[in-house]
Amino acid sequence: MLKKLVAVERLNLTPNANEEFAKRAEEYIFYDDIPSSEEEVIQRAKDADGILVNITTQITANIIEHCPNLRYIGMCCSLYDENSASVDIRCARERGITVLGVRDYGDIGVGEYVISQLTDLLHGFHGKRWGDRPLELTGIPVGIIGMGATGQVVARSLRFFGADVTYYSRSHKPEIEAESIAYLPLDELLQKNICICTCLNKFVTLLHQEEFEKFGNHKILFNTGLTPACDLDALRTWLSHGDNYYFCDSLMALGDESLKEVENVSCYGGYSGGSYQAIERLTEKSLANLDQFLAR
User: Fold this and answer.
1) Do 138 and 60 share a domain, yes or no?
2) pLDDT classification of 104: cutoffs 50, 70, 90
3) What is the pLDDT of residue 167?
4) Which among 8, 80, 94, 222 is placed 20 to 30 Å from 233, CA to CA?
């Protein structure tokens, strides 16, 4: 059991989560807002041996260094690698602090988001239509950039509806290629497909002006990541052509709220991976991570 566990910001978990975390610490304090500065985080966490965070607050080396009792950082959000983490994992590791995060909890909702928005646009169900006539997904060439858990859900969802799916990733995925989803180099992927879905980690920017030129116009782009996967100036230039479409769910993924006013940009301001079922999975895995740490 931890001596003092602090949720330093609002956690997007089920209503009973705080009660469950309280069972695992002699003292449990939770904050239902987002701290405005590093100093505020330090004040909240300075004497805790465990803290819990969401995706909105960065736990920097400075914060870690000002929390001498800290032994555990529970990321109640996605953690895929050190470079995209909101916690300075290298600093934590040097100080013997365990950092555990969550994977594979909201991917199904992301797949549903892509399918719903793309079919809506291809058919023109709500008035705006991509082509001259309604289209099914059958045979539509769609490329996936990034074949992690989210990319695989999106790819398989599209294949279920008959889309011609190809992908680009840092490494080949034999299990995906066995499902008739072929790997292509990035340039070929951009040139082949009328729709591209970027499914990348936080802070990974892969599409710049050169890539947009290869992608061309009268195209559709989805960003399913937590942050922009493209250079925003290059995106604006591409959108200015007038017949290109851009979809993302959250303002964080959009990168600049003013883009919502640009023609053919769709951003509803929520998280497609934030269904109640996803939140339940996130809560269960966050608690399991703490139990794993306490069992050591």
Assistant:
1) no
2) confident
3) 98
4) 80
Residue 220 and residue 193 share a domain: yes
What is the percent of the chain with per-residue pLDDT over 90, rounded to a whole number?
A: 93
Q: Are 156 and 149 within 8 A, CB to CB?
A: no
Range(s) of the domain holding residue 160: 107-267
Question: Are 111 and 99 contained in the same domain?
Answer: no
Which pTM does this prediction carry?
A: 0.87
CATH for 149: 3.40.50.720
